[in-house]
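Hi all, long-time lurker, first post. I run a small reading group and we've been trying to get comfortable going from sequence to structure in the token notation. Rather than ask abstract questions, I figured I'd post a concrete chain and ask someone more experienced to write out its structure so we can walk through it together at our next meeting. Sequence below, copied exactly:
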Amino acid sequence: MTGSEESSSFRLVYVPGVMPDKWVRIWNERHPDVPLALTQVPAGAAAGRLLDGDADAGLVRLPVDRTVFSAIPLYTEQTVVVVPKDHLVTAVDEVSPEDLSDDIVLHPLDDVLDWENLPGRPAFERPATTADAIELVAAGIGVLIVPLSLARLHHRKDLTHRPLKDAPESGVALAWPEDATTDQVEDFIGIVRGRTVNSTRGRTQPPAQEKPRRDDRRKQPARSTGAQRRGSSGGAPKGSKSGKRGKPRRRS
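-- Answer (accepted) --
Happy to help. Here is the structure in token form:
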């Protein structure tokens, strides 16, 4: 797809935990004539939606297949462990994997963290979703390790979380099919990167018009002063008497 093949709306998908509100607001301010269609999809479904042409771009979790996608990393999230409020680890500010060695660590099928060795003890069965795993944590069956945004998304009053060190992290990126870089995609790239509306990056800008040159002003002769005018006329100053002064009269 080329930059000239624009759709009537800009279709953006995003995965759970990502908060696109600020970028959507800026888009609506800059492009009121192009509606932004926003759809949340499971993390594992985002790539398929983009490749099938159901969306123009997506806010996805890394990694993505760089042979078919262009991607701009945006940020990396902190990893936390979600536990009941009365769990022992709530007594510390940061948790290590060793602190979870006696716990059942739930591993949902939609997990977005790339684990080599999951800490703790495995559950008998993997929950289908992160939301299901949260319910199991609340029931006291185990603990759950997720990016911070997912812990906040599934917040419950009876649960809390602590940072987990030495754990995989999840990065978020703006991604789109490599062969479908439209002007609308370029505009959204500018928004997430914080470019101003007048930025020249991205779209091809029309050539700037040359400013007209200012005509040379003709030099005007200096205006003569009153004394100069009087001097040039050859007469006496106004109000003065012409001729010589007479002799004073003698008093008798």
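A couple of things your group might point at:
The beta strands are 10-14, 36-40, 57-61, 69-77, 79-84, 104-106, 121-122, 143-147, 159-163, 170-177.
The two ends are 123 Å apart (CA to CA).
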